[in-house]
Amino acid sequence: MAAVLGLAVQLARRDLRNRYLGSFSGGAWALVQPLVQLAVYSFVFGYIFRQRLPGADAPGYVPFLVVVLWPWTAFAEAISRATTAIQDNASLIGKVALPRTALVLAPVLASFAVHGIGFFGLLVVLLFAGAGIAPLGLPAMLPAFALLFLFALGLALLLSALQVFVRDIAPALPQLLMLWMFLSPVFYGRYVMPEAVRPWFDLNPMTGFAEYLRFVLLGTPAPGWPALACSLAGVALALFAGAFAFRRLQRHFEDFL
Predict the structure, then answer these.
(1) In this structure, how many other beta carbons lie within 10 angstroms of the beta carbon of residue 227?
(2) Rg of the chain over CA atoms, in angstroms?
(3) What pTM value is reported for the model?
(4) 220: DSSP letter
(5) Distance between alpha carbon 79 and the CA centroid of its chain, in Å?
């Protein structure tokens, strides 16, 4: 396990270097880009569409969006980049003795590192801007971010193994992730939906993450136990299914690459 993690960290560092190679700001772009996006969201949703949340004590819409959108972005990018990890490293498979799970773990690590740094930077900016971020929520949100990382890793292991045999997964994945995002309370809260529909959100594993992050960071209502249980079950199921499928299918990778 230590060898897998060590190799994955090295591959992730190489990925990050290549990602920012040639840019004037280098790794600082991981902080600059989220700040630029925050300014854009503040202008669009605060001044053009004038989005407001109901309730006198409700947080502003931009913090409401930011505290969930960036973790979702890390999650979605990690899955998208890791799904083709085995296919993209086909020249190494069978020629170099290395743990193949490290090839999948590396892009997940890189995506969460980049967006994690940007997310923390945004939270600090919102905190000092008086946007309603709770200081104690910063450490409290770390378990959710870690579980979201494990959720992405489990799905990445599953999808990267299947992608070797079914090449339609990667092209379809962006549309599926976009659909999942809009079916999750990322841009909205479940309270905007009809009363009869709201309980169904508990079956979406992303609901527990979104509502927990808003609860600890913004003081919105706490997520219910059904939503939290579904999120934890989703993480456990993704890790089990991903590890099982990857272990069973990796022996056939060389025949299909």
Answers:
(1) 25
(2) 19
(3) 0.93
(4) P
(5) 8
Within the chain, residue ranges assigned H as helices are: 2-20, 29-43, 61-83, 85-88, 100-128, 137-140, 142-165, 169-182, 205-218, 225-249, 253-256
Residue with tokens 């799904």: 83
The encoded tokens of residue 154 equal 């489990």
**With contact defined as beta carbons under 8 Å apart, do 19 and 110 qualify?**
yes
Query: Which residues touch 202 (CB under 8 Å, ≥6 apart)?
Result: 208, 224, 226, 227, 230
Place of tokens 């690590």: 109
Cα dihedral across residues 156, 175, 141, 138: positive or negative: positive
- Which residues, in sequence order, are CB contacts of 123 under 8 Å at separation 6+? 66, 67, 133, 138, 217
Indicate the SS3 state at residue 58: coil
pLDDT digits (tens, 9 = 90+) for 167-218: 999 999 999 999 999 999 999 999 889 999 999 999 999 999 999 999 999 9
The number of beta carbons lying within 10 Å of the beta carbon of residue 136 is: 9
Q: How many CB atoms lie within 10 A of CB 29?
A: 16
pLDDT of 116-131, one tens digit each? 999 999 999 999 988 8
pLDDT for res 22: 53
- Which residue is associated with the tokens 């880009």? 33
Using the structure block, give the residue that is written with the tokens 């290549």.
18
The answer, yes or no, to whether residue 89 has pLDDT greater than 60, is yes
Amino acid at position 76, single letter: A
